[in-house]
Amino acid sequence: MFSESDRRGIVQRFTSLREKELEIIKFTELGDKNITVADKLFVFLSRIDSLATPEALQTHIEEASQDWFRRAKLPQERIIYGSAGAYLVLNGLAGEQTRLEIGDANNIQAQLKKLTGIIDEETLNKKGTGIPEIKEKIFNYINTERVFILKKRCEASINTILTTSEEIYNLVSKRYPENPEDAKRFEEDRRRVLFSEWWNHRWEEKKADLQKFYDSSVTNNSLDNLTENSATSLAKFKERYLQIVASEIQKLKEEAFRKKAIIFAANSFPQFDRMKANFAWREDLYGDISKLLSSIARQLAMELKDEALNLVEYMTTLLWGSKQVKERLIDKSEEYFLSKLENSLSVLFLRFARPVAEVLIRAPLNSDARDKIAKSLGVDIEIVDNYYTGEEAAFQVLKRYAKYGYKLLYHPDTRQQILGIKGIVAPIINVVTKSTIDVSSEFQSPQDDVIFEVENDINAFEEYLRAAIFEASGFESYCIQELKGLIDSFREKQGTWTGIANNEWLQENPLLLAEIPPELRSQESNLEVSDRLRQLSTALKICITYQNTRRDRFSLASD
What we know:
The chain is mainly alpha-helical.
């Protein structure tokens, strides 16, 4: 086998193709898909001088030609027969070993003359051996035919490149425009769509995060159990309420006992008027209690406002610190929001606290005024009984305590008769004298009697504030309602947050950029694809124009 980059040659001895010849065909076909075996293969049927007759030679040539045409479409002019050994011997080029293997020159000449019918020795030496003929064909191939083969190969490669380029262009141009402005607009539209898709998915995660925060930090409950008392923020709200009540009652007592001396003195001429002083002291005390209730409502409103703002602050972090979140959720200003909460809490608080203050503070024990007040309030004071959670039996029925007062605590007979309980509660220390009061005997002075009565009514009022009014007023439910209202408002404003998300994205908020996919972080449009597409389009137009020009020129030359 001999070869160059664009031709192949096979020296064949046998009539039919053997394994080696078949491998060469396969190798040649795999080498270049654009050039066939017939385009670049030459076959030399060697050692014809070993055949006995011209008929055998003709049969050998025909069978070989047919086999090659069947397997590789090789034309007959590419098949040359002869004998390389005879060529070397007859032309005096053979070495000693070759002459020994081939034989005598006279015998070879005689055999070739017999097979080929060529008589002239010079012609026989050239044509009968086949070597000059195959050399001539190969040289002709190199000098002429090879140009067409190269042309065919190049055109095939160029066509492949053009076809592939056109396919790439057609495919990419469906998604990317060539015009820079169109490309920029297209890229911006694409990124907006991608951001919207990302935000829709992220919005669901934001809602879930908010719900988890609410469940863990506000109510500490599951989604289907939002109103039970096992809260974190709600527990703090109740705890703060108790602290506020204790603080305000302490201030009330200090103010009451400060005014007491003045009121007692004003009602002691010519001697101390017990009932008149009691009424006067209570009337002043009732005014202070009205202020106390307003103060408690305001402080509770501030606590709830802080909790609401804490929730809003978390919502703000969900939307990357956007200032618009608070503006959209809290109407007008914090003061306005606080005022709304205070008004609502005052309504709830006074609905149950005021009747208790009316019946316990407004009028003295065993007075007709207290009895009338109790009757006029009716079910308003009975409702409080349903919410009392304290342990002292004397306070379980408000109307009953209003009637008997401190006697239910410190008079053994009254306690036994009314409550069915033996003994009294722990002895009480007089805040003025710092001494233990034995209420089973008479007080040393009417002033002490009034003081003890009023002080215990204040204590009873505090007990109801602590153990009944919070639950009766529904403060916890109201707190949940307000906080859940913020949650609902946040969820309902999806359209608003979508706009804010877009604004924060366009303004390149770093907190938002840290969440979004990398391809959405840069606001600069990537026009590289469109620029390359435009270059490819220009190149294709030039190539197609050039091909058409060459084709037209070739057609004219052929004509």
